[in-house]
Protein 1
Amino acid sequence: MHRYILHRLLLMVPTLLGVAVIVFVLMRVIPGDIVEMRFAEGRFFNQELVEKERARFGLDRPLWRQLVGWLWGVARLDFGLSMWSGGPIRHEIAIRLQLSLQLALMATVVAVLLAIPLGTLAALRQDTWIDYAVRVFSIAGLATPSFWLGILMFLFFLIVFQWIPPMVFTPFWRDPWQNLAQMTWPALAVGYRYSAVAARMTRSAMLEVLREDYIRTARAKGLWQSLIVRRHALKNAMLPVLTVIGLEFAFLLGGLVVTEQVFNLNGLGLLFVQSVARRDYTLVQALVLLMALVYIVVNFCVDLLYAWLDPRIRYQ
Amino acid sequence: MNSCIGGRIQVAEAAAPSRWLASLGGFARRWPLGAASAVIIVLMLGCAVFAPVIAPYDPLETDFAAQFSPPTPAHWLGTDAFGRDLLSRLMYGSRTALLIGFVAAFLGATLGAILGVVSAYFGGRIDLVVQRLVDMFLAFPIIILALAVVSILGTGVSNVIVAITVPMIPNCTRVVRSSALAVRAMPYVEAAHAVGGGYARIVFRHMLPNVMAPYLIMLTAYVGQAILLEASLSFLGLGVAEPTPAWGLMLRGAAVEFAESAPWMAIFPGLAISLGVFAFNLLGDSLRDALDPKLRTL
């Protein structure tokens, strides 16, 4: 087991290195750089000034030296300064991470509360109208764009209550009500899609487990249905559900590009879009590396949880 | 005698469509959700193909006299800020959505399937390299990768197709590879080796056809995902460019600003996106039930 953990941890290094190189190259392939973007805003610019600015950001050095310099910084956990704002990247990300993390956590709660009862119910009543209703509900969840759901929510509040949610983020510890008045709606909009993914997985995992021999044994010895479901079936069916919940969570931290726009949330997704548009190389690179790291770590944790929850799984 | 034969033929002809209908009815009873999705998809395809014939207005024609018209008999779904008819724009928009959806899904799933089978077939070092590359690309959220590609290539239909295809490939590679590993261990692949079949022949003749089930399921699900991704990109202003009618773009347009005064502009395009994606997801689900009940949710 220890060898397996060590092996997996070591495998993370080349993957992250690969991601770092990919994003570094991708950013340089995008036409234009930060200096051009800056000067495009103002009227005047001359070549000399442009060259001087490029030199200030180190963009005049050969590409491989820029890459090595950046990677060396990352290895020491020094992500440098944002090219656009000039502030430390760690700070730029930290203030948005608070919002994105809260949204992801709230959406997870919504998803789990909806998905596990619905998915279980659908599996227990397979091929009845309940099953069909749950399936239609969850497929519709996969099909409805969260940003459109957000627009509809705004419309509903405006027309029915003449009220719109607050637009400025207040940290939860400063004013919980104000915070929840803003964050509940995006959490519901995102949570619906998220719960759809998890409910589908719960249903299919439950269906598989319910056909196992030990469930038949439990039935044969006359256990109550509710006890069989809770104690024996659900526990084993939760493994794959855990995987999708983990992966979706990783996605939520940075992938809510459009939804954040609709709800006017200043999270990591919006920061990413802005930074790409501004060609803020250092900030985009740090953001992508962070998202990749979260994804890889979540994957790793899920695999470990598998071994811990199901003693039949032991990795070599 | 002749008339008798003629009569018999007539009976047979009359029976054929009813038998056909009966089997269609049987399919609908067995997979009601699949049949429902097929109906929606056929309707969408009809709209896309016959848009110039059935659309009541030119989707690009502006009519400032009819700006922000609510749904009326003249404009069934209302008009937008330029007085353009929403229903006509939705019908033409289904062309954009289906074109991008089908082409991107086909390219993504096919390239992914080939890569997955090749990776499984050769194994060893090639497999290791391909799978590590897949790992790296899977670590990017899909929309982030698509945004990066659009930033490099610029907006427009063909660039959006590339931007949607790229993040789909690694996903499909992973799924198809795991099926292909099982196929590779089959005796018929060994037999093909024994009779001297070349790599290309074994991969394309013997292995690819046997991973068709996961491939088809991924393909249908990808059409829906591609439509959704296109709508998101267009909504951000990084997808299809105006004045091409596209559903995501219609939501971006004035829909958000004028949502209060003209809610139909925000409601109908979103409904079209949801319904289209819903149909393809449902079809993918039913296909999975029919073809490969053991394969889990994507």
Protein 2
Amino acid sequence: MSSGTFDPEQLIVERLQGKAAELASCLERRDMSGAFSVIENINAVREESIYYGLGLLARGLHTAIVTFEVDDHGKHYLAHDETGTAGLTSQLDNVVRMSEESARKTLNILDTTLPQVRDLRASLEQEAVAASVPPAFLQAQRAGLEQVEHNLMDILMAQGFQDLSGQAIRKVNGILGDLQKDLIALLTYANHVKSMSQTLPVQLALADAEPAEKESEETQEAALSQGSVDDLLASLGF
Amino acid sequence: MSLPLDTKILVVDDFESMRRIVKQVLHDIGFKDISLADDGATALPLLKNGDFGFLITDWNMPQMEGIDLVKAVRADPRLKGMPILMVTAEAKREQIIQAAQAGVNDYIVKPFTPDTLKAKIEKIFKGVAGK
């Protein structure tokens, strides 16, 4: 999503210039009915621009989520989801899954290695009792095995990254989904209000008001698929 | 302090890695009888039907959050005296207060060290023994 491409002030200026030209033309033709209609439309430019900006924002966010791609290096590690599509939430889910697999592999190795080290320490102590082991050698072996066990425990605790990062990624995915849903709900509601007020040109309204109302109810009740989001934005003119 | 190492412990966390980490640390301390659950919803029936002596639970879980599990345990006449340790990434003051009010015996914020977990467990069992 590129917020740098949308200049709200420039948008308002362009629209007002357009309306001003239209007004001037009506006055030239002594079309007073047309002139008063343009004046009403000028008043609506502010809300229209906000609506248009929201629409661009929603479209930009949706496009960024759907078309998110990692670079070639990342593609080696991250795969598309089962539907064959890339997409930000899908890739983030892949990150969680891959880090979970990596942590699981490490923990599997630790599950077998830590008991082996503890057994070695126990065996060493038994040997120390049964045989005459030089104290210096015994102490060195004890220290070495203790350090190995300590290092393995550090590796174990480091796997906690997967839990914390996984929780953070899930929250980000949730926020993205909610943001997209709320923007579209706001757009749909704004368009519905505009349709009722009948003050704006058809180019930014639905071709048929009824489907918009039905879609508004649907978006309120269920999470939309990416394709449905695309269709809804397109129907709203974005 | 000598810990009751024969205590049956239930570890509840929706992330497998964290369940296994806590289990391994408990093994390192000397506990042997450790069961795992991936959500408060799966943990509660295990607690009701088992003879667990200690509960370690996360907070954020999909179906039944840890705080609700704690409340359910404290509301059950057979389980209400069970020592409970909450191990979670949630570190806001209000949440810690909420957990204390729900009845946890102690609270660890992730990430934690094995020494911290051991110290908290010792403190809890010392408190239980003192009652």
Protein 3
Amino acid sequence: MGMNVTELNVNPCKCCTPLGAVTALYGIKKCMSILHGSQGCSTYIRRHMATHYNEPIDIASSSMTEQGTVFGGEQNLIKGLENLIQQYHPEVIGVATTCLAETIGEDISGIIDHFYQSHEMCRNVKIIPISSPSYAGTQFEGFFRALYGIVTHVEMDTAPNGKINIITGPITPADTRWLKILLDAMKIQYILLPDVSENLDGGHGIQYDRLPQGGTSVDDIAHMGGARYTIELGTFVGEEWSPAVYLQQQFGIPYSRLDVPCGLQAVDSLLNKLRELGGTIPTSIQKERERFLDAMIDSHKYSALGRAAIFGEPDFVKGVVNLCCENGIIPTAVITGSVCKGFEEQLRPLAEKAAGVQFVENIQIKSDMDFAGLEECMVKTHANIMIGNSDGRRVSRKLTVPLIRFGFPIHDIVGGQRLRMLGYEGSLVLLDRIVNTLLLQRNKSFRQDMYDAYYLPLVQNEPAVESAAAGKGMKVAVSYAEKDIKKRTQEHPCFTCGSGKQKYARMHLPVAPKCNIQCNYCLRNYDCPNESRPGVTTEILTPEECLNKFKQVKKMMPNLTVVGIAGPGDALANFEEVSKAVMLIRQEDPTITFCLSTNGLMLPVYAQRLIDLGVTHVTLTINAVDPKIGAQIYDHVTYMGVTYTGESAAGILLGNQLSGLTYLAEHHIVCKVNIVMLKGINEHHIETVVKKVKELGAQITNIMQLIPVKGSAFEQLPLVSNFEIMEMRKTCGVYLEQMMHCRQCRADAIGTLDNDVSILYRKEVLAAQQKASEAGEVQKHKNTCLKKRLAVATKNGMWIDQHFGQAKEFYIYESDGTEIRFVERRNVNKYCYGKENCGEKTDRMTRIIDTIHDCDAVLSLRIGNAPLTELQSKGIMAIATYDDIEHAVKKAAAGL
Amino acid sequence: METKREKILDTYSGLTFKNRKDHVVELETDHTPQEITANKRSVPGLMINRGCCYAGCKGVVLGPIQDAVTLEHGPIGCGYYTWMTRRNKARGINGKSLIQYSFSTDLQETDIVFGGVKKLKQAVKEAVEIFHPKAVFICATCPVGLIGDDINSVAKWAKEEFGVQCISFSCEGYKGVSQSAGHHIANNGLMKDVIGTGTNKPTTPFSINLLGEYNIGGDAFETERILTKIGYQVVSKFTGDGVYDEIASAHLANLNLVQCHRSINYIAEMMKVKYGIDWLKVNFIGIKETIRTLREMAAYFDDEGLKKRTEEVITEELTQIQGDWDYYKKKLSGKKAGIFVGGSRSHHYMDLLADFGVETVVTGYEFAHRDDYEGREVIPDIKLDADTKNIEQLSPEKDESMYRRYIDDDTYNELKGKIELDYYKGMMKDMKKGSLIIDDYNEAETEDALSLYKPDIFYSGIKDNFMILKSGTPAKQMHSYDYDGPYTCFKGAINFAHDTFDEVNAPAWKLLTPPWNTEPTLEGSLGNSAIERGEQHA
């Protein structure tokens, strides 16, 4: 079952119990099976088994009808047995139940007794009841239920015969043949149950016999009770259905349950056990071991590339996990459709040990899963190879991960019945298939990957080559290797809590004015150069202007590593402009990291194009993962030309956000998810959002305070305190890395996070600077502002009554000497809580100064010498005074 | 002397003989139907090929609707086995098709004890939220009916709760005697709740619905190509490449074309009563049959331009295939075939084989009714038994607001005798004296038929496929076309002939005997005939 759902099975990774029962019965000599139930059950099972084995599969049905469900199906079953015996002359008949028979509570043993009573001449036919309703498991359990039915219903001859019982789960006919050859070669006297080697992989012979002639005879089975030992190849079936356990309890025969012999150590264990029991290991087998070991060594360099998704019946899965682990292939996504006790407990230590060597984390091991769940596990763990049955082909195609077919069913290619995985040779065959698939994959993309990662950066520094390539119409798609993206992340101020945010600068290009959704907290028609919050910009640039601005900024800011597009609308609602701007800038400077923020609505359309453009970092704002909550946050969504409101709007947006996020994460794009904390709306839901986006591959979330904007629908929404936001981040930090230092920047912000200098680079400022520099005199930018900006240290909000160094907040005013306007309160601690949170050593004073970096002057009660010098060096005048704010600010502004 | 039919029945004793004897018919005169027993309970224990009611409903009629979630309510098996098992192709709506998914409530033991309604509700909710289907069809399996889960009220609840069409189908496997019951139940549901609710009005008067076309290997795509080329507008397709909204608007078309008479005739009949739309028994499998069908359609619409265009397209298509047709006719002519497919489809392939001079000597159906064999004129004589009566029989009434006739009564009566309008003649009329027809055939009968009639190739399903191959006869699967197709119309016929030719002439058939054996590997003359075939080709 996928992680999104609780009750819906989407694309089952299992078939039903009776199918397994019938498969096991195909390992019995001269045995026919009849399903007691509707005729669809036998038809469906025949159809699926015939496609897999490419052999005639004959399963009779008691053809129950509605009448039978009311009055019981005894007459149907008896008639069925009569006809089956008359038509096929079997020596054994397995009567397997279905959901129908079990639900109406048919007494199969009773019916069989009645049958014998009324059909004396049929007493020589052994009729075995098997309880196998589909709701009680999968084909795996059904297989063992049949074996259990057989050993419990055949009268045992307990006279010691010195033989060894070998019991197998569902293994292929070809592997069964190998097992028999092995046992013969080791000179073991054995009884194999079941033996599907001939009946499910027959030849084209002289005459076709409708009654299966191969398999273990009832006579042989009768001697199992007198055997000296039992080896059961499989460890997952419950003891209540284990023939080995039954034989031990009933006849005191000691037993071992071993892993299916796939992989060197598992085969060793079996051989060693057989040797202990008196078998000899011939040279030919030792040679096989040597060859397998040699092959393991030959291919070990390539096996380590493998991140395998393994799915199917539990014992099969364990066999493959064993093989993978001892070859350095990491089983990252391991599932079975069975509700299987001990599955995770047995497999996790193996897989994690192998994963640990290569520092791979987050291994997924789950039972009771469907293919939707497998797909999720594979995406999470970047699996690059699948090993399992044909039903995995849809996931394989979707994720473009190659599938090595093994298990049941194989119905899209031929030869499922001949596949080998057991013994040294079988393991070798499977290992070769895995390794060769990995190698071919590697070969297919190696040149391109290497070229992109190592050669491309080289040529991109040569503009001539680049433009020549562009001139020839070469694809300008870029893809970065994962390693490269990691480095870029470290240099991205918004994606790291480390030194990056101080050291590296970024610029936002306001190239995307349009938006396709309306959030209730957003208002984009506000334009003030001194207001800092998302959605605000003073100007909109064309792609060409973006390039110019970039050149200007880069000249003055060599630590500029990141160019971002953060609106003011939605980047993807303006995709043409955005892509052009990115392409132009990338041509100018290929080292730049591109990031972009979006609401995600258009991601399903543009995700791949973003990747092609070379965007490596994407910020998605996802405020809710429940359309009911989303509906309260979004007023409307305009999608594909239609405007949606309410839950359908939120639903569409959400669907696209999540699939977009998944896609980007799958393609190694670093995704940050922004969540605006809205009191009374989503504050209890944020944890769920964080968990969900983590599951889909987000690397960091940024929980932000709401900035109540006048005129927006959420104008009146209560504020979230710093304490509350930090608590929320702490809570969510358990699941995913949290961004602690977001500055909720403008759409045209420039500089390091702590120092927005965008005002310097506004069009008119740049023009003025140009003029000034032409006149040979560089003027300081602040002087070009018409109004002065002043910071005030105050405790009560009326008087300047706070020491500069102790100020926890500043009131920011603007004034030209006659007018005065309150701008905002700035909290010194708003963005950083010190070392333990940020891991950086910014001292308090620097932070205070940073808070008011854009002011012309600061007014406080007192100020120390050190900060005074510091402020002066930054061109900020410090005024010590004790006065009422309005008066002091006007006076100071007039004097500046 | 014992007839071949008697030889086949000889193996049965007592009651079983009594039951089976009327299901096996050997034609005594050319092209003359004889009474056959059909649509009766199967005999338990015989290796029959029938499916169940659920298979007919979920697997055949509802499954191919590509934008609906068809949710199996029950244990996992039934959901798994109907996971895209037929090869009905779907074009995909916005690149998405739900056909490639299997949805199940995967009931466990506790659900059987305590009921599965809660689980079903949650599953519907999840399906709606994740997949945004146009509709949800809940299909019941055996235990659901027995434990009494009220799926109808869940459907009603879901419809109100999510505003998405949700219909429940009580198609428990034990109902009826074969998948045929399931077809009927699905037909009823679509008729009651879907057809008539849509508003996609066709833009030409030559608008048709294509009923009973499974789109195996793209069959419907090729048919649609021909129809569109002539100037028809296909309003909807049932049972292959289906789209919910199109089916909802089916009542706005002017003529229903019935390809598979068995699975969908109920809807055609009910639409005639309710909306006044006539139906025409068509067959796009086979070159001559396609030509007949196209001409009858043109005759129905009676438009000079359309008639002219029909002839043009026929000529155009024929020109393209004529060379191949002649070639394969030469290669295949004189061969004998056996066909066991479905409940109406054997007849189609019989026509197609006749185009290449191949005679069908053995044929039959899994789940047909008497009218599929003998023609619709026998319907009044068919006595409904309890198994059939248990399936709801809808009696729709004329819908005054939407009822309309495309042709007037005089024209209708005049056409009725000339074309297969509201009528199906059945399969037997196309068969020769001595041919064998088996209803609800089983493995033993098939084996006997193979040895008595010695067909050169056998067309059947997967279940008997390998048994036929083991007996030395080339066999082709007609439910999946062995991953080939399309086989419809002109080009499709050539694909079919090509595949048939390949199968009959596979090199392996020449290698059956090892050099150290002077006897053939197969007993009797079967092996010899296979070798002869090979030598003929060589």
Protein 4
Amino acid sequence: MGRLGRVGITGRGLVVALPYLWLLLFFVVPFVIVLKISFSDVTLAIPPYKPLLEWVGKNSLAIKVNFDNYAFLFTDSLYLHAFANSVKVAFLSTLACLLIGYPMAYGIARAKPSLRNVLLLLVILPFWTSLLLRVYAWIGLLKANGVINNILMSLGVIHEPLTMLYTPFAMYVGIVYSYLPFLILPLYANLEKMDWQLLEAAEDLGCRPWQAFYKITLPLSRNGILAGSMLVFIPAVGEFVIPALLGGPNALMIGRVLWDEFFSNRAWPVASAVAILLLILLVPFMMWYQSVQARETAGAR
Amino acid sequence: MTTTSGGVVKAQPWNDPSARPYVEVERISKTFGDFKAVNDVSLKIYKGEIFCLLGASGCGKTTLLRMLGGFETPTDGKILIDGEDMTDVPPYERPVNMMFQSYALFPHMNVEQNVAFGLKQDRIPKSEIRDRVATMLDLVKMSDFAKRKPHQLSGGQRQRVALARSLVKRPKLLLLDEPLGALDKKLREHTQFELISLQDKLGVTFIVVTHDQEEAMTLASRIGVMNHGEIVQAGTPSEIYEFPSSKFVADFVGSVNIFEGQLIEDEPDYVRIGSAELGGTIYVSHGISAPPEAIVWAAVRPEKIFMSTAPPQAAADNVVRGTVQDIAYLGDLSIYLVRLATGKVVRVTRPNTSRHAEAISWDQQVYLSWDATSPVVVTR
């Protein structure tokens, strides 16, 4: 222990302090700023809100906390609708990801070890391209004279192009496509640890293969399912880019409302209030995810 | 080394041609790619037996067991259990249960739920399940741990739960894959005898896979020694130990000194073998069936060799001189490695019957001798 040790700085202390410092700088400070803005009045200025603290007279400092922004969110049904719709979209997307992702994760986990890495790479590969580009690519696939419509028409399956782009369908496709790896990876990590002999034991005791899956694999992969679902659900609730690009004008998502308030209406206080509410909405899910993660680590002993 | 059979089959149905075998394996083979894991194996196992498949890892014993359980489909051949063809019956419809080497206890269920699993699967009434599970847990002395999860149990306790789970369905045949492999030596010895008495009580036929010859000797009514996917010899533990049919079996089961030699005299009631390896002749008091001057091997167990510092009284055949090269004191007995003039090292064991035994020490000149009945002559 050198000079640093004498002033109470140790290697262990530094290692622990660094992530906290990071969180402080890039989460707590911005959060406090947003929280502050959400309680202020809107005004035509740069920045477009009034400070919370004001000198009144000579020696008194007044704190003006404005709850109007929050009250406004509950009076205009647009915001509650957007919240509800976001949760609905996120929920259905998570469900779709689960239905598609579970068999994929299961397949990878049961593949030959040599093949497994290739399959995993294929899941991760899309991350090498920007999300925006990949979502744009879907426009080319889904539009009226896009790839899918052209193929279907040339095969004679349909005679008029299907309207897919700018519909909820396109939005779901985009969200499920983009978030699928986030579900597959934790689920794979969970299934990969599974002792497949348990399935043989279940069959030995009278289970058909699907019963063994339902009674053994599914309950044992519960933590993987929850972790993967949270990783899809939490960001999907606040998703902005995909609904904006693929969803129609009716795709009312809270992320989009936030964007509009912030940039189009320059209503920073209201936008901040939306952000804070969104955070409050998601905190229980994040805590749940955390506890699942903790259980998973404890169970891996 | 014990030569008494631990198995409960007092009568010997395998010597009775009219006895009906309970499990019949007919010329079964299994190939993975171009690897023959099991090669043309036929077996007859009788009701109430503990039959041990003994062999080194990779000899095909586990594959054979898995075919009996229905987890592998034979490439060729048939399996009959209690007269019914089971070759293509999936595991969940076989009247057979398996105890896995890893125990494969369901980690998300407690002991009770693990044991009840198979019964629930068969839609047996709740009250009956409760009774049968309780009886079974009582039998394996795990009643006090019924609510524990597998990860809260010791290795020995898990082994008991696995055993209870595989026996509670009253299978016609119980397959055990290295049942005691994960236990430490003391616990293993203790559990071997428990397993035998449990099998005696329930009368279930056991087929046990093991690589541990001592375990096979203790448990088995009969042992099938496997090598390269084939059963090279099947018989009671004492038959396997005292009358091995080949060099491989003699060497694999217990330790043995093998002397290569050539038949010099081949009479109906004795043979004499000249062995360059021994530097002398070996006299064996029984005839063998081999062509004259054939190359044969005489196998002598270490405990059947007498060692003395003075020349034995009736010095004739089967006496050889050597120098003690190494001694291993094991408490109950000592192992001596004696180097002969030819360079061959012979293994001799002597029980330490006295606490102050006559000391034979390193580099001492000794005489080794054995009875004419002791060597087993094998031709392959």
